[in-house]
Design brief:
Elements lengths: L1 H19 L2 E8 L8 E8 L6 E8 L4 E7 L4 E7 L2 E2 L8 E3 L4 E6 L11 E5 L1 H15 L13 H18 L9 H25 L3 H12 L21 H8 L12 H4 L1 H12 L3 H18 L4 H13 L7 H14 L10 E3 L5 E3 L7 E7 L4 H17 L4 E7 L3 H7 L9 E4 L8 H5 L7 E5 L5 E3 L8 H9 L3
Parallel strand pairs: 1-8, 12-13, 13-14
Antiparallel strand pairs: 1-4, 2-3, 2-5, 5-6, 5-7, 8-9, 10-11, 12-15, 15-16
């Protein structure tokens, strides 16, 4: 009997490994571009957790056609960029792709992008077709004819309320062609994308009126319920909506001043999450693990990291799927990113292709600035950083801007999202998977890391946005 059980278990294991390594195919045609090559990038995003990974596949069309074949280990988010433009908008930012899918996108007109303007076919396409039809129905109930920026908060909440009611009605109908798991993920996706702009604007302009609207249209109607599902949390809800929900639900206890509240006040935010989601342990543990890893990476060596670690240990289930990873992250940072430890010995190209190595800057204080094109925080601090550089550049200080985009986006962003005075380097298209990003545990942008004259770690300086003087003094004390 034991032998039979062992054989069955081995068979199941082999079957699981075979499934997880299935080849996946994404193809398409841009019908009106057969006379010229077009740049197409497929980006695969593995979850939305703090340790998410992305993989870009880049090609050019031939006779209007493009094709990607790759291994996919788990259900993931995928998006397309055509000549650098997000191809699924209007409609959505991304779609769900499963291992073994063979999906074909027909794009009739390159000047008219958007998932709602595409035809989708092939194995696994039914979930994307269902998403497309659902989006069309949601768009049909938009009540306000005003541009979003001209709408009052009351109009925004009413519009979102109608859209969410339409979304709920869609999922009350029986849909046999789409799996239950995919339906849950699509439901959470639609709710997430419908709430995102509303929650961001509510955070930015929180007052008593917003509080009343939030309680009336969101809390009382339990609008976040589709996001409280363990099969969906790693895809949608966990990045912005549920964190913002925790904060907005407790807005009367602290002054909400920005969308970065959870990073500025991680201890208070942790208590909000515990209060709001204690009845949903997997959601609570996901959000607390996600925050903990981001704070450990962004503020290593600080007392806040140590306090958050103790609070995390006390309030999460130690068998939750994120626990071991979170504890390992903290231990790694404590052991490898201590002051005085050697930093990663990088070798990165500049805009002319010349490779620069860490050892090239021996004898100088090095300030590393990690950024990406489109990063609003990066853009905000550029004039502040340029002023500090002007004051310090003559004092044996080397400022190095390290970009995590592809080359085209990197070059477009220089001087807008990074200081024009800095040495400009980039991670050669490896994005968040480059060893320097992993070594430095860079989880938020912009991130600054200061190294001493021997290339050893000093630490993360005070925020240049909120404490420009402290930022400069942190560097100057090393001279």
């Amino acid at each position: 009997m034991k032998k039979i059980l062992i054989i069955i278990m081995l068979h199941l294991l082999v079957a699981q490994l075979t499934y997880s390594q299935k080849r996946t195919l994404i193809t398409g045609i841009i019908s009106n571009t057969k006379d010229r090559p077009i740049s197409v990038t497929l980006r695969i995003i593995d979850g939305a957790f703090a340790t998410r990974t992305t993989q870009d596949y880049i090609t050019k069309t031939e006779d209007g056609k493009f094709s990607y074949e790759f291994s996919l280990e788990k259900k993931s988010k995928a998006t397309l960029y055509i000549n650098g433009t997000l191809a699924f908008i209007p409609g959505t930012f991304d779609v769900i792709v499963s291992p073994g899918d063979s999906i074909h996108f027909t794009i009739p007109d390159i000047k008219k992008l958007g998932l709602i303007n595409m035809d989708v076919s092939g194995i696994g396409s039914e979930k994307i077709t269902f998403l497309k039809k659902s989006i069309e129905q949601v768009f049909s109930v938009t009540s306000s004819q005003k541009a979003y920026r001209y709408q009052t908060m009351a109009e925004r909440y009413l519009d979102v309320d109608k859209k969410l009611s339409m979304i709920d009605s869609i999922f009350l109908r029986k849909t046999e062609k789409v799996s239950k798991n995919d339906l849950k993920i699509i439901h959470s996706k639609l709710v997430d994308e419908t709430l995102e702009m509303l929650f961001m604007s509510s955070m930015a302009s929180y007052n008593d009126s917003v509080k009343t609207l939030f309680e009336k249209y969101i809390i009382s109607k339990n609008r976040i319920l589709p996001l409280l599902d363990k099969s969906a949390i790693e895809y949608y809800g966990g990045f912005r909506i549920l964190p913002y929900y925790s904060i907005l639900s407790n807005g009367n206890t602290m002054q909400i001043s920005s969308n970065g509240f959870m990073y500025d006040h991680p201890i208070e935010y942790t208590h909000f999450v515990i209060k709001e989601f204690n009845r949903y342990p997997i959601i609570k543990d996901y959000l607390l693990s996600d925050l903990a890893i981001k704070i450990f990476r962004d503020r290593w060596g600080s007392s806040i990291s140590d306090k958050l670690y103790k609070l995390y240990i006390k309030n999460v289930d130690k068998v939750n799927p994120y626990y071991d990873q979170t504890i390992k992250e903290y231990a790694y940072i404590q052991n490898s990113l201590k002051e005085g430890k050697p930093f990663y010995d990088f070798a990165l190209p500049d805009t002319n292709g010349l490779v620069h190595r860490l050892k090239d800057f021996k004898g100088k204080i090095v300030v590393l600035d990690f950024w990406f094109t489109g990063c609003s925080g990066c853009k905000t601090i550029v004039p502040l950083l340029e002023k500090v550089e002007e004051d310090l550049i003559k004092d044996s200080v080397q400022f190095i801007s390290i970009n995590v985009d592809d080359k085209r986006s990197w070059l477009l962003g220089i001087g807008k999202y990074s200081s024009k005075h800095s040495l400009q380097l980039y991670t050669e298209g490896q994005r968040f998977d480059h060893p320097i990003i992993k070594f430095g545990m860079v989880a938020a942008y912009p991130t600054f890391i200061v190294l001493d004259k021997k290339g050893n770690i000093v630490g993360i300086p005070p925020s240049i946005y909120s404490d420009k003087v402290g930022f400069a003094q942190y560097i100057r004390r090393l001279l």
